[in-house]
Amino acid sequence: MEDYDHSESLTVLMKRVLKQHRQNVDLLIQKYEVFPGQPPILLRLAKTDGLIQKDLAAHIHSKPATVTSMLTRMEKNGLVKRQTDPNDHRISRVYLTEKGRHAASCVKEVMRELESRCFQTFSKEEKEQFGRMLLQIQLEMNDFYEEHRSLHLLLDSEEE
Question: Which GO terms describe its molecular function (predicted)?
């Protein structure tokens, strides 16, 4: 059996590429007073302004407490504002400010620029094929997770 060297695996390579991509995004968005982790919030609010924090967290696949702390920083920097829902005072809605809308537009441009740079040497067909491969990997990883999650739930219920 061949020895497995994890450091040379495709998943490690994907991790390195994604890390470099994020570093480039973080570098380019600093001048707009946008910090790591904040672009998904800006982009989601640019698409659907006035979300409640819980829904915003769900849309960006993050924990509500994490989103709350990011929103606090973004509010201090003037990117977002939180307002109580006029129909339900228990609910706080999040809105982009003018500065936030400008930052979201700039973040979109940064993402467009990096996307273009990442794939500038790929043909249209290669990009489409790569996209299909990534979707296939994502589906396999989702299936793997559900299979193992179900197994763990089953084992946990048998222990009780």
Answer: DNA binding; DNA-binding transcription factor activity
- Render pLDDT for 69-102 as a digit per residue (tens, 0 to 9): 999 999 999 999 999 999 999 999 999 999 999 9
Phi, psi for residue 38 in degrees, rounded to 5:
-85, -25
Contact 112, 29 (CB under 8 A): no
pLDDT in tens, 31-50: 999 999 999 999 999 999 99
Give, as one character, the DSSP assignment of residue 135: H
The widest CA-to-CA distance across the chain, in whole angstroms, is 66
What CATH number belongs to 31-118? 1.10.10.10
What DSSP designation does 120 have?
Answer: T
> Residue 151 CB: number of other CB atoms within 10 A?
10
| Residues β-bridged to residue 84 | 92
For the chain, which residues make up each domain, given as ranges? 31-118, 123-160
49 token code pair: 């302004």
Q: What is the pTM of this model?
A: 0.80
